[in-house]
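Fold this: Fe2OG dioxygenase domain-containing protein
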Amino acid sequence: MESQIPPLDSGSSVVSVQELIKETINTVPERYVRHDQEPLILSDNGSTQTSVVPVIDLGKLSSDEIVGDQELQKLHEACKDLGLFQYLPFTRRIALDSYIKETQKLAMQLLSLISKCLDIEINELKELFDDGFQTMRMTYYPPCPRPELVVGLTPHSDANGITILNQINDVDGFQIKKDGVWIPIHILPRAFVVNVGDIMEILSNGVYNSIEHRATVDTTSERISIAMFFNPKLDLEIGPIQSLKTKESPALFRRIKMEKYVKDFFSQNLNGKSYLEKMKLQPEKAFASEEE
């Protein structure tokens, strides 16, 4: 049977990916080919690296002092060196409204733990994020016959504070950029992935690292994910936390109203960590900010 999809020339309307996958196609329409994307570069042995993403056990964090301190240090190192960790919840199969409430509770719990890791007031981050600007994105990545020619989601770092990602159907496609190399990550079954975002890097004055990541597509299987993004309140001003600024570690980022930060971010295309770079202070301004 002849395909009913119109040719993708300059005179036709844009055909959605959802419409394309209703047909059996063996090639990728030129409109969807990304000629400028970085090629897939795996680790030295060409395999995925599950061990690179630590799993944090919140139960251990509330156990005896020795075990709890060890797990807290593990969380600190994950946020500092990778900007990413995994967490295994008790269950995921709940109604959407309950899911949102539970992830909100988890986010507040993680923010308290991160405050403890940074050695700042335990409620300092919670007060910034409580009743803050929160969004949710559900994403469907259809299968593609030539996945190396397309991109599921452009390389970027999340602009928010922390992201809680739920990979619904356990189809891999999440990749992080570490030391200039794209590493495919195998997310453990039922696990949430927690990303450190640009705002957390700003608040921590560069102690923590927002991770650049992207999404790829699979040859035969669809991929579905739900991401929850947590931000401070829109009427607040964000910048490095005061107690993390010293003469030895002056402010690395400028201060900005949260509402303007969000508007400026969404006014540009996703492009790695380019927006965070714009937030950085020049060395002489960093010292001037410290003196204020």
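Confidence is low (pLDDT under 50) at residues 1-12. The two ends are 72 Å apart (CA to CA).
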